[in-house]
Amino acid sequence: xxxxxVYHAGNFADVIKxxxxxxxxxxxxxxxxxxxxxxxxxxxxxxxxxxxxxxKTGEWREGIGRLWGQDLPDGIKELLAPYFTSxxxxxxxxELRCYPGSPLVARGLMRAQDxxxxxxxxxxxxxxxxxxxxxxxxxxxxxxxxWIALRSLLPPKERRGVIxxxxxxxxxxxxxxLVSGLKDGLRRFATGTYLLWYPIKGLPAVxxxxxxxxxxxxxxLLCAELFVHRPGDEQRLNGSGLLxxxxxxxxxxxxxxxxxxxxxxxxxxREARSHxxxxxxxxx
Length: 284
Ligand SMILES: C[S@@+](CC[C@H](N)C(=O)[O-])C[C@H]1O[C@@H](n2cnc3c(N)ncnc32)[C@H](O)[C@@H]1O
Hints:
Monomer. 38% of the residues lie in helices and 19% in strands. The chain contains 9 helices and 10 strands. The strands form 2 sheets. An 8-stranded mixed β-sheet has the order 5-4-1-6-7-9-8-10, sandwiched between helices. Helix 1 (12-28) crosses helix 3, helix 1 (12-28) packs antiparallel against helix 9 and helix 6 runs parallel beside helix 7 (174-188). The protein binds S-adenosylmethionine (SAM). Residues 1, 3, 5, 17, 39, 41-43, 101-102, 119-122, 125, 145-146, 166-168 line the site of S-adenosylmethionine (SAM).
């Protein structure tokens, strides 16, 4: 396990992932009944942007660094407000020193009646997560393989919730495990909202993945992609995508505003752009 998220925390890919997660949680909060957030590949929860590792890549400067403390257009400001709430929960209103990973984005937004299960396999990262989250009775922290976690945690007893699946895609066979994990997860919890994050280097691998997930017979499958470069150079992260199964009503309309804004604001080349596509079903 070589992947360490601290090198990438707060980059453009984290921005679109965490903005979407925060919006889904806000939609779930429209009903008083409790929900559960399940984070199968959680990372360490909180990232020091002044650390040597974060400074080495400086990726956050081209991500959250281009949004925090900057003017945002009306209409976008409101949609990014929950995401900013979670960032504020680890920094206050001042200087951006710390970036919340998905566990803290979720915990910063959930209510007393909601619960969060986070899972991280790397022993050191798991220990860091425990230090940050222990003592919160709404949170359960696991240290098992994310694909096993996915199977064993579904369905949640609340029968409402969102599952974030955010693997590092560093080992061979991850796509097969992803497709079979999703298939099994959907059999156990067909009505959940699933957010599956993926990196975009070249397009062929991504198209194969999208086709294989679409073939699972999902009724509603939305695909949101943000490109900061033209895809092609396989050595570089050119974009990132989210497959969203059972997106809440309004999410496509809201992402339809946010994605073009982020493509412009977070562009790293003239080829930056975004796509929002229904791979199955539609918002109606
Ligand atoms: C992309 S990072 C997670 C970032 C986090 N979800 C966020 O948005 O802040 C992927 C994480 O998965 C962990 N990981 C790698 N293989 C795993 C596995 N088989 N099961 C669970 N976690 C794993 C890595 O240690 C890493 O922390």
